[in-house]
Amino acid sequence: MTTTSQVVAGSGLAFIEGIESLSIRDGLEFEPQNVMRESMINQDGTIAYKESPRSAKIKFTASLSPGVKATDVFAVVSKTVMADMPGRSFTLSNATFTGETSINAEEGTYDCEFEGTSMDEEIS
Question: Fewest C-beta atoms under 10 Å: which of 31, 71, 94, 111?
Answer without folding.
Answer: 71
